[in-house]
Amino acid sequence: MFDKILIANRGEIALRILRACKELGIASVAVHSTADADAMHVRLADESVCIGPPPSKDSYLNIPALLAACEITGADAVHPGYGFLSENARFAEILADHNLHFIGPKAEHIRLMGDKIEAKKTAKRLGIPVVPGSDGAVGVGDEAMAIAQQIGFPVLVKAAAGGGGRGMKVAQTAQDLALALSTAANEARSAFGDASVYLEKYLQKPRHIEIQVLGDGRGGAIHLGERDCSLQRRHQKVWEEGPSPALDAAARAKIGATVAKAMQEMKYLGVGTVEFLYEDGEFYFIEMNTRIQVEHPVTEMITGIDLVLEQIRIAAGGDLPATQDEVMINGHAIECRVNAENPVTFRPSPGKILQYHPPGGLGVRIDSAVYQGYVIPPYYDSLVGKLIVHGKTRTECLMRLRRALDEMVVDGIETTLPLFRALVRETDIIDGDYHIHWLEQYLAGQSAS
Ligand code: MV4
User: Which CATH number applies to 132-201?
Assistant: First the structure.
């Protein structure tokens, strides 16, 4: 097992990793920019190192500074969290070159899944259902048109180096294709330095359902059920829940078994999330995330498995925490990402938290690193904290979530709490009847009224 873990992240996920380190009896090193000197994870870690000024490129993305912090403190492993360097294969390799453990998947798998074309080819080869589309990158002109006509319009042009919605263009008809291809390629070239694009059938109103997996790197892998992340705004997840209101046990078992088998064949190491679009009872692979995700607590609450603690154990050579038959989905969980943003315009609202009261009670969890008097810096994401609620049923979970949202106080800055207090009372949400465009249509309706 590791002796000392350097947490190469900030905010709530840094605190979350710190908690797992303490439970495992592993020494912890916090790193922080000058803007985060008063952050909770810095206060609670065994040691802390300032790694640079506020801009991420000079601090949390500064690999030489992170290596120096490992050298100074004698850390033997690095946990990247999510975002920042968490899916940077080169970082994983550099750490290995310095005899440091990267708590994450094998660099080859990070690199593989970072190329959305190769990821899709791999998924298809491993028997995972994929969206109908081109077999690889497409050029402009006749080849693309022939493929598009074979797929059937509307088609979606996606950047190979994209992901998370970046570099996507819809072509509703043949007339739109040339412009969609050139626009997507130009945006991909400037955003990612790689103009490669591919085509997919455009699914009109799917749900976004992701499967949590855990692999031991030696051919063992299990799935831990799904999370429905369809409620998104501008590709930012807002509300995530598990199990999905749209899946029955048979559908869950089928797609879970398919994904677990694929991860066994890959000899996947660590935690991972396989993302699907789900429409008319069919799953379509879109991409795989090779990191712990923001919404991991939803899965922890319904399975009782501590994903971050297991991530550390498995990275140190440990076994999986359960066999597939031992994984049980108990009850229902919902996560609301509370951001320091205006709840209508979503304009960031950094500043000092004057009053802070997190809700409590059975089945109520807050993953947050803020406190009364904390100043939310303007340099990073606007997450105040994640409110995660568990209930024996979805109905009980919604009732408890409504109560917890009404109890929660964050004064001094604007937050998206009012949005969640409205959503939890919306009929479509109560019925679980929504898709990936539902939230933006709801918000458009709100601002129109
Ligand atoms: C799609 C799609 C429809 N059809 N692919 C957006 C981010 C990335 N995860 C993939 N995304 C999509 N891919 C096909 N073939 C619609 C989206 C999409 C979306 C997906 C999940 C959650 C929210 C979304 C919002 C807009 C578009």
Answer: 3.30.1490.20
